[in-house]
Amino acid sequence: MPLLIPAAALILSLIVHAVALKVFPRLGLLDFPERYGLTRARIPYPVGIVSVLLFLAFFLFLSRWNIQTVMTALAVLLLGITSFIDDRKPLPPLLRIVIQILAAILIFLGGARIYSFTNPLEGMFGGPVIKLDAPAVTTAMFGTLPLLSALFTVFWIGLTINALNWFDGIPGQVTTLSTIGFLTIGLLSLSGRVNQPSLALLALTLAGISAGALFFDLQPGKMLIGDTGAMFFGLMLGLLTIYSGGKVATAFLVLGVPLLDLAIVIVRRIVKGKNPLRGDARDEHLHHRLLLKGWSRGSIIALTAGIGTVFGVSALFMGTVQKFMAAVLLFVLMLMLSLYSRPIRSP
Known about the structure:
Layout: H1 4-27, H2 48-62, H3 67-88, H4 93-109, E1 116-118, E2 129-131, E3 136-139, E4 143-146, H5 147-166, H6 173-190, H7 197-217, H8 226-243, H9 248-254, H10 256-271, H11 286-292, H12 297-315, H13 320-340
Antiparallel strand pairs: 1-2, 3-4
């Protein structure tokens, strides 16, 4: 596999992000610290649009032009433009959800689908493989469309989009985790179990793009990727999982921290009788709670990146049952971190 292209993606990402930091202020593309009661100077925002445009350029150059390429590009462009507008002037939550669903449907119609997944509890819940290829409807333009596959594909992509977006509370956290995720999927794609060099090339190219963003994102006060960047990286991690043959378990172990954090926050809001999709507190997510505990931003990023790396790399050498056990262990670890980070209320 030519590593020249991922290397070029990294170098170009560094250059374009450096240019963006100079150009964004001139265009008035700065964040709004006053929205959050902050008094610091405004910084370039949302610079995540740079990663979106870089990916589209590489993707359209590397891919064969077919229905899947076109639909994927349209989905990325739709989500990217909507997120960029939302970062500048907040859109209604329902509209954002509809756009996410529409982007996932476009990807599904293009042929990127999860038809089945391996059952880790064979004997308890059916056979070794849980199939999602029936019932189905036949269309003239897109052929046979399995409905269960559509539901699961849309759910999975929506989950990864929002998990990364909700986890974007500390600069550098999402870009770090995304880079690890892309590298893991790239290595998995090169392994004998998947053996998809073209997918590995795409994943490593995305790793180069996200690593370029990470270089500036880790520097305090340099820039913010915004929902535009976080949602884009979440979309691509979910999509690459599907491209690699529905390796949901591997992706779950890499993204377990934001995915489980998302689930814990939603459950906590429901228990409190709140809207699970509308946040109103600064102590809900793990990174918020750890900050209140006195952890530094660097320590929090190191924790989440370390967990993602350990579980993600381990998944490359695990079978289905081992991955299931690792997921249970990760769940227990997240519960322990949730209890540890629980804020102490004044009497």
